[in-house]
Queue: 2 jobs
Job 1
Amino acid sequence: MNVGYVLRRFGVFLIIIWLAATLSFLLPRLAPVNPIREKLLQAVSFGGAGKTDMEAVVKNYEAKFGLDQPLWRQYVLYISDMARFDFGISISNFPSKVIDIIMRALPWTIGLLLVSTLIAFVVGTLLGALAAWPQTPIVVNLLLTPLITLSSIPFYILGLILVYLLAFSLRWFPLSGGYNQFTIPSLNWAFMMDVLHHSILPALSIVLASIGSWAIGMRGMIISGLGEDYITFAEAKGLKDREIFYRYALRNALLPQTTSLALSLGYIVSGAVLVEVVFGYPGVGTVLYQAIRLFDYFVIYGIVMILILAIGLATLLIDLLYPLLDPRITYQGR
């Protein structure tokens, strides 16, 4: 692989992260009022303090968060903090650090969304490819039809339906939460099984709502490739249908699917926000929802930055892995 190209791509990645960080810094400061100051005043007022006391507390907060500095100095401190993943202190959960709040929620979201996305990708891609292949039994198409229908239903709507049917009516699964509220989190078999039991419904809603989308995309790629010369050449060589399907049709159609998968994995950090809210799951999506509801700007900044970083890294990695997925792609000589 061309080293110069890799360095250029990494440079573009750093520029994108810097631009995103700059935009996140500037947007709240374009408002006619300082939203952070307003939130601080609101938080202090709940304590019953007088106006003089409120102003004094707000000034202390502003000094703590660096909001009393000139704008250029705030920007320099902000970029320096972002580079060290120091997103400041939560306003609504003072004095908890934002990075600590996010790191507590991140494993829950990655565990739920990563497994769900990969299952939906593998199953949907295989079903879509089989549905487009002429020699596939008709039962595959019959199975794919309801899954495509479910793909038009949003995650959270499907989640509510599953909660009503499987949790409320049949009582097979818990209604909400990541684990039993009376359970003390620990690395033991009982706790892990409890977490698995609580994660089945939110994972099922994501998988059922995603399989159809992956299948439709893969089916279209396989159909468009059936008339290509490499398929005709493989058939002329007398290769078996199974070998043509796996080595020629499926492999060549995987590249666009892999690109979509990389972007989907990048969005895992933000989580399926409404799914986590519906199920009361203790992931990043729930933290983001609570931060928006409580106007906790520093938590919102932190989650947005990590989301941008995750999407940028996923895009960079898939771009560098393209030559391994498809030998026809090369970066030599660029």
Job 2
Amino acid sequence: MPNFFSAFTSEVFRPLATLIIPGAIGISTWFVGLLWHFAALKQLVSYNHTEAAFVILLAMIFAGLVFEDAGARWESMLDHRADTKTDKLHSRQWFDYLRSAFVADPIGRRYLRSLVLRLKFELGVAFSMTSAGCGLVWLAFLGLNCRVFLACGMICALFVVWGLTEAGQTHQVLGCTRAELLKEIRIVGLKP
């Protein structure tokens, strides 16, 4: 029997978590607004499911790439802020780590990869929720109930604050983990 979870390897899970999910969140309210405002588009989508799904997938990927780019710029700002606190030690350690080739793969590298994925997801969610919030404003002009608008707007704002706050903390842990990986690595259990 095939293992269902084997499909969620890092090659599949990374783009799903960093591009597809944030992209879907970011375009969701805009797509609803388009269907609500343009009856002809709604009819076109309802008659052409496959083609519409393909176009929506492309829009999600495009939006996800835009949000990932915005997240990379935010991460660069976090790097600059860390450099001002540590007299550029953060960037020196980052570039030293990039120049390092490990004979044995330390456990910390897998942890570092998971932290990078988490950082990209947190930033992607923050920027996609910003886009979804802007789409909510348009939906409010189209006639969205005020209570629904306020509730959804609060959810978007909370996720933006959560994403940016968590990204800052994850960025600090990434810096500490990279600094530790630059130290001497112990290999345990090898016989001479």
